[in-house]
C-alpha cells in the first residue's frame, strides 16, 4: 500500500483528500504544520512514499519545508498544492525542490494522476537502482538473448529471429516478451503486465495488452489463430510456453 | 522577495541618514571656517534647513510607500488564499460525490462541509466588497433604527455556530436597551468582525466577554474583551489600518485579509462614533471598543 503524507492546515481540504486517497487504496497521514512535516520526514526511514505539501502553512511555509528537506538529503517525491499560481511562486516551488506543482482549485482526477506519476517515476528509479543491469556485475545480468524451438530473441538488438527470418521489435514488445519469458509456464494477468512492464496503474484499459500479444503472435506462431507459445488464459491474461508438447 | 525588499529599504534609509550626516558635517565645517560672513551664514542656514527637511520627508515617504506595497502584496496573497481555498474544498467534495460511492452519513457530512465553505467564501467576498464601498466618497447609508442588544445577540449566535464555540466561551452582559440610527448591514458587519476576531485569535481556549453600556447618555459602547495574545502599545492604532495584520507567528496561524478592523473603524466614523483597542500588552488579552451615538 502506498503511503501519502498530506501537509495541509485547511481541515476541510485535508479531510476531502484523505477520503479520496483512501478510496484509491493509499494509506494517508495528515499533519497541519510544516514543523510536524519536517519532524516526520527527517526521521530515519520515514514511512511515506509521496508528500503533498501546502504552501501557506502556520509557522514555516511550504517553500521552506521543501528546501530544508532537499538540503538534508530527503528526496521523497513531493507535490506542492497551493492557491498561489503566480509564475514567481511556481518557479520558487520548483527551485526549492518540488517535483510537481498544482494550484487550488484543482481537478481531482488531475491530482490523482500526478500523484501516480510521481510514484511511478520513483518506482522506476528504485527498480533501476536495484536491478543488477545497472551494476558492473556482468554475470548476474539477465540474458540478452533467449531461444526456444526454432526461435531466438536478441533483447539487446531488439530482434526476433524466427526460422531464419529476422523481425525488429519495439522496446515495449521486447519488454513484454521478456516479462512473459521470465514467467515461463505461469499465467500472467493483464494487470500485472501493465504494472510491471508499462508501470501503469488501475484505470488504464488492460485491453491495450491484447494488441501487443496479437503482434507478437504474428511473429512467433506458425498459425497465429491457434497459438502454441503465447497462450490465452481466460479471465486472467496470458501464459508463455517455451516448449509445447 | 520580502527579504530582498527589506534589504533595499534598509539601503535607502541608510543612504538618507548618511546624506543628512554629510550635510551636517559640511555645514559645521563651513561655519567654523566662515563664521564672519553673517548674512551668507543666515541664508545658508535657511537653505540647509530646507534641504534637510526635503531629504527627511523624502525618506519618510519612501519607507511608507514600501511598507504599503508590502502590505498590499500580503493582502493579495491572503485574499487569493481566502477565496481559492473554499472553492478548492467545495470542488473537491463535489467531484468526490460525483465519482465515488459515498454512504449516507458521509454524504451528509460533505454537504455540511460544503455549506460551511460557501459561507466562508461569501464572508470574504462581502468583506472585500464592503471595503471597496467604504473607499468611495460619500457613501450612502441606509439608515434605520437599530436595537443594539438584539443585534449583538444575533451576531453572537452566528459566531457560535460558525466557529463551533460553546455558549459559555462567549459571554454577553447586555446594558440597558439602546437604539442607534445606522445602516444595519454595516453595523452588523462591524459587530460581527469584532466578535469573529476575538474568537479567531483566542484559539481553542476562548473566553470572551461582550458587554454594552451607555456612556454620558449620548453614546452606546460595545466592548469585546478576549484573553487572546494581547497587543503591543505600538500596534493598538495600527491594527485598524487597511491591510494591516499583526506580525509574527500568530498572524500566520490565523487566516485573514487585514480588512476586518478597518471596516469596524470606517463604520464607526461613518456613524459619527469611533473605535479603538485597549491592551495591557502581549499575553494580557485585549479589548476592542466600538462607540456609536444613540438615538434619544
Please give the largest β-sheet of chain B.
5 strands, mixed
CATH topology of the largest domain in chain B: Heat Shock Protein 90
Strand arrangement, major sheet of chain B: 2-4-5-7-6
CATH level 1 name of the largest domain in chain A: Alpha Beta
Query: What is the strand content of chain A?
Result: 15-25%
| Rg on CA atoms of chain A, Å | 23 Å
Helical segment tally of chain B?
8
Task: Please identify which CATH superfamily of the largest domain in chain A we are dealing with.
Answer: Response regulator
Query: Beta fraction of the residues of chain B?
Result: 5-15%
Whole-number mean pLDDT of chain A = 85
Greatest contact pair? A-B, 23 and 26 residues
Distance between the termini of chain A: 41 Å
Order of helices and strands of chain B: HHHEHEEHEEHHHEE
Brief rundown of the structure:
The complex is a heterodimer of chains A (245) and B (296). Chain A is 40% helix and 21% strand.
Explain this structure to me?
The complex is a heterodimer of chains A (about 240) and B (about 300). Chain A has a 5-stranded parallel β-sheet, with helices on both faces. In chain A, strands 6-7-8-9 form a 4-stranded antiparallel β-sheet, with no helix packed on it. Chain A has helices at about 10-25, 35-40, 60-70, 85-95, 110-130, 170-180, 190-200, 210-220; strands spanning about 1-5, 25-30, 50-55, 80, 100-105, 145-150, 150-155, 160, 165-170, 185-190, 230-235, 235-240. Chain A starts with a strand and ends in a 5-residue tail after the last strand. In chain A, a hairpin with a 2-residue loop joins strand 6 and strand 7. The longest helix of chain A has 23 residues, at about 110-130. Chain A folds into 2 domains: about 1-130, 3-Layer(aba) Sandwich (Rossmann fold); about 140-240, Orthogonal Bundle (Arc Repressor Mutant, subunit A). With about 240 residues, chain A is of the alpha/beta class. Helix content of chain A is about 40%, strand content about 20%. In chain A, helix 2 packs parallel to helix 3 (about 60-70), helix 3 (about 60-70) runs parallel beside helix 4 (about 85-95) and helix 6 (about 170-180) crosses helix 7. The radius of gyration of chain A is 23 Å and the shape is elongated. Chain B is of the alpha+beta class and about 300 residues long. Chain B folds into 2 domains: about 1-140; about 145-295, Heat Shock Protein 90, CATH 3.30.565.10. Chain B contains 8 helices and 7 strands, in the order αααβαββαββαααββ. Chain B has helices spanning about 1-35, 40-100, 105-135, 150-165, 185-200, 235-240, 250-255, 260-270, and strands at about 145, 170-175, 180-185, 210-215, 220-225, 275-280, 285-295. In chain B, the strands form 2 sheets. A 5-stranded mixed β-sheet of chain B has the order 2-4-5-7-6, covered by helices on one side. A two-stranded antiparallel sheet of chain B has the order 1-3. In chain B, helix 1 (about 1-35) packs antiparallel against helix 2 (about 40-100), helix 3 (about 105-135) crosses helix 8 (about 260-270) and helix 5 packs antiparallel against helix 8 (about 260-270).
